[in-house]
Amino acid sequence: MGITFKGASRLGAAAAITGAVVVGSACGSTGAAQAMPAAQGECSAQQLNVSVREEATPVANEKLFAIEFAAEPGVSCTLIGAPTNLIFYSAGGAPLGIESVEMDASTAASVVEVIVDEAHPKVVYVASPRADLPGATAAKATFDLPSDAVDTAVEVAWPSEVNGPVRVGNVGDPVS
Fold it and tell me: Residue 12 is part of which domain span?
């Protein structure tokens, strides 16, 4: 089942970059996961430090953000797939109404369970189209971790303006 939305041609480049980054991440995470100790279960929000940074992108018509998941000391837990329910907010706390599109887990070969621990942070890449006009000034974002743990709701500061719809990749290893 594919995902379609208005503005697909404008996001073509962003989708290609996000897909390439996510596939590259998944390939690198498979071998690393085998060398790590067993996880203690699925990650909850309490077990992770979550941050967002804007990344350099080779495509002129997009912005690329990395959401990083770093485990608290002594924690080893798992994540799988893409975060859900991504909502951006203004500095005043009002939802900005920016649509987000997650990867289709039924067809994405890059959906793998990854282990997050102190030495192995993981990331999710979010692609946003650039617009001729400035985007919405997002002060923070909320989303649910890609986990079946009880506490998965996360709130994080957002580093810059964002335009939608945004494309959200699957969790994997950081790409350098």
Answer: 8-168
Classify 64 as helix, strand or coil: strand
Per mean pLDDT, which range of 47-51, 101-105, 167-171 is the poorest? 101-105
125 in Cβ contact with 99 (< 8 Å)? no
24 assigned to some structural domain: yes
Look up the CATH number of the domain holding residue 77: 2.60.40
Name 85's Cβ contacts closer than 8 Å, sequence gap at least 6.
142, 143, 144
- Give pLDDT tens digits for 114-125: 999 999 999 999
Number of domains into which the chain is organized:
1
Residue 20 in any domain: the answer is yes
SS3 content of the chain, % helix, strand, coil (to 5): 20, 35, 45
